Automatic annotation (TrEMBL):
Keywords for the protein's UniProt record, in alphabetical order: Methyltransferase, Transferase
This protein's name: Class I SAM-dependent methyltransferase
GO molecular function ontology, one term from the record: methyltransferase activity
GO biological process: methylation
InterPro entries in alphabetical order: SAM-dependent_MTases_sf
Organism this protein belongs to: Actinomadura nitritigenes
Amino acid sequence: MVGSQKPVGEVTRGTTNPNRLRRIDRWIAATQAAALRAGERPLAVDLGYGASPVTTYELYTRLRAVSPRLDVVGIEIEPDRVAAGRAFLGRTGPHDGLSFRRGGFEVPVPRRPVLIRAFNVLRQYDEPAGWRAWERMCSRLAPGGVLVEGTCDEIGRRAVWVALGPDGPRTITFATHLPALGRPSDLAERLPKTLIHRNVPGEPVHDLLAAFDRCWATAAPHSAFGPRARWIEAVRLLARTHPVLTRPPHGGRRRWRLGELTLPWTAVAPRTSS
C-alpha cells in the first residue's frame, strides 16, 4: 500500500483553521484511548488535512498526551499540500513521529493505523460514494482501530461525526458551541454524507432531530442557568425515548456539558436503501 499508485479520491477545497477540529480531537482522546495505545508504535492518520498542516500538528500534540508512542501521518492528495506539511516540519524543527505523505482513501501507510481521522473530505461526494469511502478506509484499520469521519463548520463550532470500526459504523456524535445554538436540528447541515440527504420524515435521523428539538423546547426554563444546563436537561429528556449513551466515556454529564451527544449508529441508520 505504500507504492506509487494514484491516490484514490478528489482534491478538496482545503479550507482549514487552527483549532477547527479541537472538539473532535478532545472526543477522540477521551473515548479512544485504548485504541491509541495499542501496540508498541501505534499509528494515527489525518486524512485530507487541507491547505495547511496545522490541524495535523494539533492532532499530534493532543493525542501524544494520551499515547506518547503514537506516530501521526498527515495524508493529502494535492502534492503542494504535502510539500507545505514537510516545510512546516522544516521550520518548526523535528517532531518525533510526525510526517506527511501523498495519498487518498487507500491510506498508503506502512502499517495499519489504529485511528484514521477524516474530516470535511466527503462533502463533494454523493451518498453511495460516501459509503464506499467508509468501507475502503475501514478496510485499512488495525484490529480494534477506529475511523472518525464527519463534518464541521469553518471555525469548529458545529460538528457531527461517526466512529466506525472494521465492522462498520458504531456511534454518531453531535457537538456544538452551546451559546450559539438556536436548536439542536441546526446541526443537520453538518450530518455526514451518508445521512445528510436522509433528514426527511420517515428516516430515523429526522425523527431523532425532531425529538431533540422538542426536548430542547421543554428544557427552555433551564436557560436561566445558561445554555449548558438547558442542553444537559434536553439530553436527559431525549434519553427517555432514544438510546442516548449515558455512561462514560461516551456519555454522562462530563461529555454533555461540552455540548456533545453520542448515540449508537443504529439510532440513525438509514431506513431505506440508497
